[in-house]
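Q: Structure for this?
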Amino acid sequence: MKAAVCALCGKRFALDDGGGSVRFSDYEPPPDGSRAWGHLWFCVTHLSSAERRSDLPTAAALEELRKRYWVSWIRGWLR
Ligand SMILES: [Zn+2]
């Protein structure tokens, strides 16, 4: 079973349960196959909001998402 961690709330989720990755406007494929910047995982709760901001660069999109879902974000930090 594949799992990922939501970039916003820090929740660990199984990919079978929904959720997925979003490429933001500054996404660049990694030349060496390492983890790419601009490519983040989101749980099913936050995926659609993240997708709506995929035309933004990663930092700007995350800032907007954290403002909107600050409760989830802080819970992720406290976990
Ligand atoms: Zn989440």
